[in-house]
Amino acid sequence: MTEKQYSGVLIFAEQKNKKIHKISYELLGKGRLLADELKCNLIALIMGPGEIDVQELIYRGADKVYHISDEEIFSIPDEVLYAENAVHLIDEIKPEICLFGATAFGRSLAPRIAALTGTGLTADCTDLRIDDDKKLIQIRPAFSENILAHIKSDAYPQMSTVRYREFNEAIRDENRKGDVVVAEPVKSVQNAVEILEEIEKDSINIADANVVVAAGASVKNSEDLNMIKELAELLGGEVGASRALVESGIISKEHQVGYSGNRVKPAVYIACGILGAPQHIAGMKESGIIIAINNDPSAPIFNIADYSIVGDMYKIVPEIINALRDKGIHTSLSGSE
Description:
By secondary structure, this protein is α/β, with parallel strands linked by helices. It folds into 2 domains: about 5-185, Rossmann fold, CATH 3.40.50.620; about 205-325, TPP-binding domain (Rossmann fold), CATH 3.40.50.1220. The chain is built from 8 helices and 17 strands. The strands form 4 sheets. It has a 7-stranded parallel β-sheet with strand order 7-11-6-1-4-5-12, with helices on both faces. The chain has a 5-stranded parallel β-sheet with strand order 14-13-15-16-17. A 3-stranded antiparallel β-sheet has the order 8-9-10. Helix 3 (about 80-95) packs across helix 4 and helix 5 packs parallel to helix 8 (about 315-325). The chain is elongated and about 65 Å long. The model is unreliable at about 330-335 (pLDDT under 50).
C-alpha cells in the first residue's frame, strides 16, 4: 500500500457514560488544522454503548463521523474489542493520520491498533506539524524531558497519542454540516476484560481545575503537604506538584504538572516552593494568573509570575490561609461557599 492511497485525518473520540471526553474536542481542533494543511477530510470515530450526540463532533470540525454502537459489545471498556472495530474501519477508509487522546484508555487502545495495523506509534505528543513533504512531524519530550524529539514515521497510517490540554478545543459551530455514518460493529474475539469489582477512588481532576495550588521539593514530608491541601480546598482547587516532589514519594504522579505530568490552564496557579524548571513551566505557563512563593529571589518561576512573593512558604502559606478564613472564604474562587 503506497502513501498516496492513504488520505484523511482520523481522530478517536473518547466517551464515558455517554458523554464525549473534552480531549476529543482538542483532537478535533488540532486535527482540523492538519486536515486543512493537507487538504483532506477530518474524520471522527466514536464507539461505545447506547446513543450519544455525535452531531457535536460535526459542530466541532469533523467532516465525517463514524459511529459504532452496541450495548453488549461495548458494555465494558475492553480495549481488545475497541481495537478490533477501529482496525476494521481503518483498513476500510485508510486515513493517513490517526490521533488518540493520551488518556488511560487511549494509552492502552492506541498501541493495540498500531500493532494490528503494522504501523508505529508516537506516544504523549505535545505538538504535531506537517513538514514540506506532507509528512506528520510528531513532537514529544525525550531524555528525561531535556529535549524535544521530532519524530517522523515512514509507515502508514501515522499514529500519535496527544496529551490532554496541549491543544485548544475546536470552536463549536452549529452551522457546520457533515456526514454521520452508522457502522455495524464486529466481534470475532472473546472479551479480554472482565469487571470483578468497581472501587471508587478519590477524584483528582487537576487538568480541568480552575485553581491549582502546586508544591515543590521544599515540602519535606506528607504532613507539610497538608497546608498546601488546605489552601487548595479553601480556593475550591486541586493540588499540583513538581516532578521532584512526585519522585520523593510524598504525592502521587496524578498531581504532577509538567512535560511528563499534566498540562494545566487554571484561572489561578499558585506555585509554592517551586523553582521553575523549564519542564514544569511548560505545563502551567498558560495559566491565567500565576502567583509564585519562593525564598530564592532568583528562582526562574518569578520570570513568568504575575505576582511574586519572596519568602518562606512555611510562613506565607499559613498566613494566606488565615487571611482567607478571616474573610469568610471557605471554598471557592469558582463561586460557591
